[in-house]
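Annotated sample (chain length 258).
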Amino acid sequence: MNADARTRPLSAEVWQRPFVRAHHAWCEDFVLELRLRDVPGPVIGDRLGEVESHCTAAGETPEEAFGDPAAYAAGIAEESPTRPASGFRRITALSAAQVAALLVGTAAARPWARGEDLAYNAVQAGLLGVFVLLLLALPRVLGPLVRRPWTVGLPFVVVVQLTGLGAALAGRLDLPAAVSLPAAPVAVGLFPVVLVLAWAVHRELVHGPGDDAVLSPLPPQPGTAPRGAGGRRGIAALTAAMLPVAYLVLAAFGRLTA
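Output written by the structure step:
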């Protein structure tokens, strides 16, 4: 085995391998299922290499040799070590916390401009609390959402959207304030929180995988050059910057329309 091949991340080599490109859907579902089950990246790389070696030698497709990728991955996961949390679960948790901070912080911009407190009635506070809890629960329910997008994912998204809409509309009810907060400290104070979380997301996207990267045990294919890190860093920076920019835009809009 070429030792240098063991140091190449999946994005630099494996997805460019002719076998993986020819059976991209099967390999993608296989890797995704193992990731959802928190199987370490090197183990995934070894298993993917075994699939390629077997199919190449036997002249079979992955479907013919191993059947359904999710079912095969489930069997592998039962006998493989796991890690406490995978990178995209951490990114999901960080992003959910960002959205929660953004919603509360930007909602405070309009009452701040009016010299009022940020106030929530009981119904609004309850729905907002449920909405935030649903967002923070995303890492826990990520597996079912991805595996069953129509029966679990779509209903979950609808419930989240209806809860958020209900929280917004409940503010129009003629009810006394149950929670009252000074608007300026909330609007200003939550923006650094969003920035810190954005930095954590960026760091996770760029450096998070570390030794958990999916590595190929097979020699590199001729003509498959490693993908540069510059594009990855650019995408990570753009992704991380989206919510802080949205925070500023929404807060400015709230103050201008107060």
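Annotation: The chain is about 70% helix and 5% strand.
Annotation: The CA atoms of residues 117 and 182 lie 5 Å apart.
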